[in-house]
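FORM 7B - TANDEM STRUCTURE REPORT

SECTION 1: FIRST PROTEIN
SEQUENCE AND TOKENS:
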Amino acid sequence: MESLDLILLLNPCLMALTLGSLQNILYVALGLGMVIFFHELGHFAVAKWCDVHVEQFSIGFGPAILAKRWGETVYALRAIPFGGYVQMLGQDDADPSQLTSEEIAADPRSFSSKPVWQRMAIISAGVIMNLITGLIFCAIAFAMGVESVPAIVGSVEPGHPAWVAGLERGDKIEKMGGRTIRSFEEVSISAALSTGPIDVEGRRRDDTPFKTVVVPDTSGNRPSIGVSFSSSLRLMKFLNGDPTVMPGTPAASAEPPLQGLDLITHVDDVEVKSFQDLEDRLVSKGGETVTLTVRRPPVNAAGVPDLDAPGEEIKSRVGPGFFRTLGLSMDTGPVTAVRLGSPAQKAGFLAKDKIVKVGDRAIGTALNPLRLPDELSQMAGKEIEITVARQKDGGGNQEVVLKVTPESSPGWLDAPLRAGDALAIPAIGVAIQVVPVVLSVDPGSPAEAAGIKPGQRILKLALLPHPDEGSGPDAKTVEVDLGSDKEKNVNNWAFAFVQLQRYPLRKATLTIKEDSETRTLDLEPVADKEWPYPRRGFAMYPARTTQQAKSFSEAFKMGYANMEKSVLNIYMTLRSLFTGHLSVFELHGPLGIARAAYEISKLGISSLLIFLGFLSANLAVINFLPIPMLDGGHMVFLGYEAITRRKPNEKVQIAATYAGMAFVLGLMLFVICLDLFVHKF
């Protein structure tokens, strides 16, 4: 059949993990080989049924590793596993003139001698076979049980579309754009493939329904809405032996010590049913020591923890955490977003307003802007006056006093996750920038001891690794660039402040600028005992859910629905690529496919089968595109022949085939380069 079956992975939501076992490699090799094999088997079987002379059946390209002739056909396994081909008499993309050769067409067993409907059947058989085998893969997976991350919002990025639209921690997303959502991956895909505002429906943590409209952010390589998945209540266990809790945090000093795989069930004898319940309970305890009840799974005879068993119940005391500060109070930048339906929106806050006063306290001198999320939450239910500087239509600024009644909504749970992210003030529903320009320095603070003065600008924060942190992925120098030459990083002091909390054992190195002078200073952050930090250092596994069919018929229904959604997602991906809503740099090639399959195989056979089902759908759709040399291109020429009752012009067909070959090979080279140099295979 075709000299190259194009395999491109168009899912923009792959997550790479770590290297794994030889067994997983074998599973992946077998699975990917099966996807290619069944595609080619479709062409081969129908060709044989139509009595076409099949010269070669090959999996892979390049030099043959194994080759054997049975009857009239050579069966080969080749060195480059990027696809495969079925070579028939009268059909060879490397020599397209065979399709129009009268001499070959005179052979009754040649492809070109067969009626149009038989040639169409042979061409389409590979795609049909992929759809069938993909359905079987998915049905088997759902019969076994497929684990996935539930579509529950873990956190919302301040100022991003989901935050503006009113999505909250713990929300369960059930529909996006009218399509049912069953996993968090589908949330990411629906956002990435969107072309405009998305209707989002779901349920809050108290089970009340909600509806909102989210306008995705299209400034990156793919549209996004700014939500992350939810954690579970089970403590993570690192295979390399790193601590199960974050070093230097209250969790690391728990008595008795916490262990990986412990399941948190209660805080001070109050049951917690979700990670968001745990967060809220710890926030309510502020600077107090809490007693956690955890269930520790027993180990079975094979030495494997049994997570389904009740396990031993242990009570562990965990002390409070406090914000680590340097004694710096910065200037505020503009309001970047106002949340829909929030107290701020009702009070008349606008984007680009700059908060300058709360009551009679000036921001940056009398009130540290980083304290605003907690300060305003503590004023819940009381009407207060907030003064903002607002741009006038004719130029310049004017001060406007707005009256607003804050809600009881704790700060810093939806913290800045990326450089440039704003600081959320959830009590009133605004997100603001915090500019790294010093307005005041606390007496007796590390900043004062280092000689930092008002008016100086912070250009960079660096945090060097500490030996007690272990050797995990976070054991590297953290640098936050605040230089004015990088626009997106100019106003991100709040993000830098989050990094101080994330690495509690590390000292801080600041690069500061005053006039034309630049200095580098080492500071030791101190804990502010009057300012409780809501996170106590737990590293948790992602929340997981299992979709499992109760019967074979239900498994096939679930498999069909999954394949239908996969095919639709691929077409939507192609549309987004052509319209520019999705960057071509989000594509993955054969190396990316192999790595993704390899990582997914570590989640279990059922997860790998779901991936192979998606890959089968991907191969079916891509190969049926109207590109000369692919199945879809052949179908175009056959359709022309069926309608006009004459074969296409030989020169046109040959030129189109070579053009298609150049396009496909160029695209393959492009995605391999993406795998190597962009996605860092």
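SECTION 2: SECOND PROTEIN
SEQUENCE AND TOKENS:
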Amino acid sequence: MPSPRTPLSRLFTVLLTGLLAGLVLAVAALPGNLLGGFVTKSVLGAYAELPDALRTPAQPQRSYLYANDGKTLITTFYDVNRTDVPLAEIAPVMRQAIVAAEDRRFYSHGGADLRGIARALVANVKGGGTEQGGSTLTMQYVRNVLKTDPTRTAEERQAATEQTVGRKLQEIRYAGALEKTLSKDEILNRYLNIAYFGSGAYGVAAASQRYFGKAPADLTLSEAALIAGLVQSPDEYSPIDGDQDKALARRAYVLDSMADTGAITAQQAAAAKAEKLTLHPTAQPNGCTAVAQGHDDWGFFCDYLRQWWLRQPEFGNTVKEREQALRRGGYTVVTTLDPKIQQTAQQQATKVYGYDNKRALPIAAVEPGTGRVLAMAVNRHYSLADNPAGQANHPNTVNPLISGGASVAGYQAGSTFKLFTMLAALEAGKPLATGFDAPAKLPTRYASDAEGNCDGKWCPGNANPEWMDGYRMMWDGFGRSVNTYFVWLAEQVGEDKVVEMAQRLGITFRAGADADFAKNDAANWGAFTLGVAATTPLDLANAYATVAAEGTYCTPQPVVSVTAANGDKVDVGQPSCKKVLDTDVARAATDAARCPVGQQSAYGQCNGGTATSVNRIVGRPVAGKTGSSEQNATETFVGFTPQAAVAGIAANPDDSTDLVGSAVQARVIDAVARTIRTAVDGKPVKDFTAPSRELAGDPQRPQPQPSPSPRPQQNQNQDQNLPGDLLRWLQGRGRG
């Protein structure tokens, strides 16, 4: 942080004055032709030595993050609160004020004003008042650049402000060189964009916003004069953090100086001096914990974007360099966040659980075919504020509850993982009509001594045998969430193929026990199809989005575009997609996924679902799946249309033994469905394409199926029947 100009010690002042005064007088006494030769030689030599920062300035600027409309500000990142603006976007009175305040002969000198230097030296020797620097705007610009140049060492930056004859002479030479290469207006523009105006504001754009809440183009005469007056002693004169009386006195000086130069009339100066100081202080948000007021839920998306940014080599070779680029590079980032979808998701999440509830409903929305993350909501404030005693992560947290990472491995998503078994089976050539007479309990090849085992074998069961047991195919096995059908199907395909399918669609195993099982013993992970591995709403939504996009997987993407400070587009933000499923396989899985949500498959084989209210809420072609973990510890729903995929998981992020209970399932379904409806609102209705007859197969049932029994929706999907100790064993003793 720059400090006000400090008076030189009397002895040093006298010595420096003598040296410089002698130099000034000697140079001034030279004949015109000799003086011209002296200056020309000095300037040309200085130009050859100009640091790159003076040739092509790269001063720190704050970066802006916007929502996908390119207008809604999410937050800014900066080390230095500064944004460059062209001279045309700075009010003429502001330009006139800074010239009158700091360098009246700016448009007539060649970089150094020898008369001004001599006058300042004499005044400083006499003392009795504020030190006069004698530096022109060009010289001040040189000093500002050199003392803030990030490519220079700390010692070099400090040397740029040392009170030495050598430094002053170098400053004069550099200023002369710049005057030979840049126009006066360009120098003035650069100066206005780098000068420090107090209260953390660097440059006139930041100062205009900081003090008056407006753009520099809109400054009035009195406002411009006040800002211009701050340069001499920015922290002391700041009307926010310093002395307002001194700020007003300095404003009066600038106005009188403007009148003296003819920029304004004496009457205009008098009227501006009479104006009452009216401030509209505006603090620029800095970082994800300082998102726009009233939208602290955006912080979770902001943090996800920041983590993405730190992995992109386009912004630097190291994490430190990329962080510095975000905070100093002046980027304009248009993100994928859709404020309308985000608002609905946040409202729905907090409708299910309040901010102060220990349980949470994280929700994520993704666009199929692009991977663009449209919303990330949860009933928490993204904040570093302290929580009440005994409340670890509520109502405030900065943990990635929606996307996972750090200490967040995720949550069990129950029968939503049956999708991966179905896809593996379809890919292996088994049609949707693959039938199996699903029993109430299915003995498997896995040994078990847990209570409820079947002759020493693990035997998962159906939560509602009357409604689930019997001859099932993929359509109604998926629609009714029949455990024994899908455990059997996984055995036919190979559990390792199911695990590989989940990974192919972007499911990341963040829990150590899950990662170990997937790597070393996937072929024996019998319970995987029942959703015992931890996942996140973002991973789950994106996996289902892959099916919605007919087999095209896209890496989750938080940005639409990134523009550098110079206006160049950075080559990031384009969808990164690849084909991971045969189109017909994806279409077949979608056809079966119409059953759970109360719609009908293209082959008329849906006969019951666990989330039938979704059809009514969304009101257009939709598919999806419910999921309940063991003893209803978590409740999940993920749904999709061709244009949006949304997932929500009700859980206690701090205590996996806290069972959310089956009663919340209907509310989770409702929350996700309403978020989907907002996501597709106003978009053309798109239908799903039916799979081929070959992959559908011949749906011949051996006997007529009874009508689905009407049951309360929240009881339809108690998807697992695994004893707790067996579940821990299946997961490598890692988690219950």
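SECTION 3: OBSERVATIONS ON SECOND PROTEIN
The chain is about 40% helix and 10% strand.
Confidence is low (pLDDT under 50) at residues 1-18, 23-41, 128-132, 704-736.

SECTION 4: SIGNATURE
Preparer initials: ____
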